[in-house]
Amino acid sequence: MPNAYSRAAKAHTHDNEGIRLQKLLAQAGFGSRRKCEEIITEGRVEIDGELVTELGTRVDPKHQEVRVDGSRVRVNPNHVTLALNKPKRVLSAMEDPKGRYTLSDIVGDKYDRIFHMGRLDYDSEGLILMTNDGELSQHVMHPKYEVEKTYIATLEGRISGQVCRRLVTTGVQLDDGWIKLDRCAILDASRDGTLVKVVLHSGKNRIVRRIFGAIGFPVRRLVRTQIGPIKLGDLKSGSYRVLSQTEVRSLSKAVGL
């Protein structure tokens, strides 16, 4: 049976134009060229909604939409996405009229039109994602896609497992409404402090500090360790790294791209 895509391909891309499909998939982080060929022949790839199984197929990624297992393949050589480990007393902004240290002081001017996706408050630390991909940024920050965020918080006082569970099952009422944690786990505890790991979807300002402050356990230190599938890992404070295409693809998939 002829390839379902053959007629559509001829309408958009001549044999000597565009990029070979397996090369595009490899650039997008789907694995080696051989692995990408297997993905194509297994019938997992669509171009403009048409199934493609021919290895010689060429595609123009600027004008045609490629999907693997239903998820869009996004490759733009001008786009870059960074993971940055924000130290305390750094403003989650690109500039500050008061002259405080900002994210641009860490990243510099190497990347054109790059911006942070979300914020951390001035005294909090940890993972911030930055990009010059406007579509990705919009999806990551939109409440609709409910990106999970993981934090390690050092609390004043000794919190019980029962209180942790109640924050997940019932939540707590703040000035702007009820809020629940997705998960809460005690990592360590002493007589005057508790180390907890919390996961939640909300991106509201100072939300973790507000939750624990509302129940009488002020946060001494707060570190964000993960956003969606992207982890802080061993990235040093005050430094950043460029995400791999595989990481960008996993993040894009998590936010519906």
From TrEMBL:
EC code(s) of this entry: 5.4.99.-
| Gene3D superfamilies in the cross-refs | Alpha-L RNA-binding motif, Pseudouridine synthase I, catalytic domain, N-terminal subdomain, RNA-binding S4 domain
Record flagged with keyword RNA-binding: yes
UniProt keyword list: Isomerase, RNA-binding
Q: Which Pfam families does the record cross-reference, listed alphabetically?
A: PseudoU_synth_2, S4
Q: Quick check: keyword RNA-binding in the entry?
A: yes
Q: Which GO terms describe its molecular function?
A: isomerase activity
Name of the top EC class for this enzyme: isomerase
Q: Report the residue ranges that make up the RNA-binding S4 domain in this protein.
A: 19-78
SUPFAM superfamilies for the chain: Alpha-L RNA-binding motif (SSF55174), Pseudouridine synthase (SSF55120)
NCBIfam families, alphabetized: pseudouridine synthase (TIGR00093)
* Family listed: Belongs to the pseudouridine synthase RsuA family.
- From the Swiss-Prot or TrEMBL record, give the protein name: Pseudouridine synthase
Organism equals Bifidobacterium hominis
